[in-house]
Design brief:
Layout: E1 7-12, H1 27-42, E2 46-51, H2 59-64, H3 69-93, E3 98-102, E4 111-112, H4 115-123, E5 127-131, H5 141-152, E6 156-161, E7 182-184, H6 185-190, H7 198-207, E8 211-215, H8 221-226, E9 233-236
Parallel strand pairs: 1-2, 1-6, 2-5, 3-4, 3-5, 6-8, 7-9
Antiparallel strand pairs: 8-9
Helix pairs in contact: 1-3, 5-7
The protein binds uridine-5'-diphosphate.
Residues 13-15, 52-54, 58-60, 73, 76-77, 80, 133-134, 136-137, 139-142, 144 line the site of uridine-5'-diphosphate.
């Protein structure tokens, strides 16, 4: 079966990488994700990844505890690089060629972000992992995912989370909460639904990039989603 997509962007939150721990990285969880991503690449899908850093540090939390917000955000961005390198290591152990590109220069450990170079890597079948967010404080890695997806001309963003899609209420609190199969950007924005932050959704809306929200809790879902099986919730125009 030929995959539905040619080029995709996967957004992995930092929290996804910590498994059942309260903090940090669970290498076993990262290995499991890497093996699914390896299958996606083998299926011929050009795959770029934006990783978050919430398992290590969040700028907002630092600011709430009295830190300067911009400084705290830079620390958060640096945290994402640790996650990016961990994912790279897991993928390369599975013989998947990868490149980490960072939005804050760290040339001893990763390439700088260069758009045209990232596209070239993807064309050659390498997974490109974008670290250090957008390089700007006051943004999130969700917004980075929207920005990079637009820049590299990805057809779709896959937002991997802990819930199996977007609900009209919090499914953990409300047993009557209903999952959307699809919804519009405007609906997500006006109802403040937990898809991505509003900057990220607005950027996807302006550039007409659909977002597919799906759960990582079920093994095999990364492969299913990225190869085009209709799972989760699609947010689009
Ligand atoms: N961050 C930032 N600019 C960006 C991306 C991220 O300042 O373009 C910082 C911000 O402090 C954020 C942290 O990096 O809290 C980690 O990213 P995020 O919270 O988006 O990670 P996730 O929730 O996906 O784990």
């Amino acid at each position: 079966m030929s995959p539905k997509y040619r080029r995709v962007l996967l957004k992995l939150s930092g929290e996804a990488l910590m498994g059942n721990q309260n903090y940090g990285i669970d290498p076993k969880v990262v290995q499991a994700f890497a093996s699914e991503i390896a299958q996606v690449v083998q299926a011929g899908v050009q795959t770029a990844i934006v990783v978050g850093g919430g398992n290590i540090f969040r700028g907002m939390k630092g600011a709430a505890a009295g830190m300067d917000r911009a400084t705290a955000d830079y620390i958060g961005m640096i945290a994402t690089v640790m996650n990016a390198m961990t994912l790279q290591d897991a993928l390369e152990q599975m013989n998947v060629p990868t490149r980490v590109q960072t939005a804050i220069a760290m040339q001893e450990v990763a390439e700088p972000y260069i758009r045209r170079r990232a596209i070239r890597h993807l064309e050659k079948g390498r997974v490109v992992i974008f670290g250090a967010g957008s390089g700007n404080p006051f943004f999130t890695t969700d917004t980075t995912a929207a920005l990079r997806a637009a820049e590299i001309d990805a057809e779709v963003i896959f937002k991997a989370t802990k819930v199996d899609g977007v609900y009209d209420a919090d499914p953990h609190k409300n047993p009557n909460a209903r999952r959307y199969r699809s919804l519009t950007y405007t609906h997500a924005l006006t109802h403040n639904l937990a898809v991505m932050d509003s900057t990220a959704i607005a950027l996807c809306k302006d550039n007409d990039i659909p977002i597919i929200v799906f759960s990582l809790e079920t093994a095999g879902n990364i492969y299913r989603a990225l190869t085009g099986e209709p799972i989760g919730t699609m947010v689009g125009g």
